[in-house]
Amino acid sequence: MKPILKLEGVHKSFDKQEVLRPLSFEMNQGERICILGPSGCGKSTLLQLIAGLLTIDGGIIEMGGKPVDGKKQFIPPEKRPVNMVFQDYALWPHMTVRQNIEYGMKRSRTDSSVRKQRLDRLQSMLQLEGLLDRLPTECSGGQQQRIGMARALATEPSILLMDEPLSNLDVKLRTEMRSELASLLSDLDTTALYVTHDMLEAFTLADRIMVLRAGGIDQFAEPHQLFSRPKTPWVAQLMGYHN
Ligand code: ADP
Ligand code: MG
Q1: Which of 32-36, 122-126, 209-213 has the lowest average pLDDT?
Q2: d(CA 57, ligand 1 centre) in Å
């Protein structure tokens, strides 16, 4: 089977400063991959390149075997089989929760009966009962994050991209949402690429973890392998080994 996502030699600079070194990896259907790394290492840049919110400087990105960014082609974000959940939720402030969730589905011309089905399902799954007619500002941070998730999931993207979706929540809520999200993603059988600087999140959610440091991949492996066989001193340090 073709990988759902494939990057080969993808690199990116801002103002002549290389933020991502040529980077290659593949992701399979149904996999949950966490990209783990310190602030400033290029995580958001990588996700935005995959989403099509930024263009690559070189290399190629393929989705389902088709190039979406490379020498000759650039498929815009709305035509890629991805959807993204942001750290700051990025909900439309003037739209109700229902309108926010329906927005992407309407844009992709989803049939109204299908829209209703998905809305009902997401509503109960993400505990949004009673919130649909409110404005985002009338919802708590945790609720807003769930709404952002519902909005992204509603379009049934092949790949769900998440950029530190829990980092703006307080510690208690973050802990709750972490396990909630883990079970949600496994219930939905969603293919997800999840960016975080939180080790615990990565270990709770991921089938495989990519450790990113200064724009390059230190190690890309299953969580237990990072722990038992760290490939670099940096990964070892992350895992709590002291030398
Ligand atoms: P992370 O998400 O891992 O914290 P980012 O991908 O946001 O890291 O940023 C990686 C590096 O690229 C940082 O040094 C950041 O300052 C720089 N950077 C990110 N976006 C831009 C931009 N639009 N213009 C210039 N520099 C940028
Ligand atoms: Mg970031």
Answers
A1: 122-126
A2: 15
The residues, any chain, with a CB within 8 Å of residue 62's CB and separated by 6 or more, are 3, 5, 6, 7, 8, 68
Rounded to the nearest angstrom, the distance between the alpha carbon of 61 and the centre of ligand 1 is 20
Q: What is the pLDDT of residue 75?
A: 96
The answer for residues whose C-beta is within 8 angstroms of residue 155's C-beta and 6 or more apart is 83, 104, 105, 108, 110
| Contact in structure between 72 and 191 (CB atoms under 8 Å) | no
The token duo for 227 is: 């722990």
On whether ipTM exceeds 0.95, the answer is yes
pLDDT, position 86: 85
The protein residues having their C-beta less than 5 angstroms from ligand 2 (an ion) are 43-44
- For the CA of 41, the nearest atom of ligand 1: 3
Instruction: Give, in order, the Cα–Cα distances in Å from 210 to each of 25, 40, 68, 138.
Output: 9, 15, 22, 37
Nearest to 83 by CA among 188, 213, 178, 197: 188
- Rounded to whole angstroms, the Cα distance separating 24 from 199 reads 22
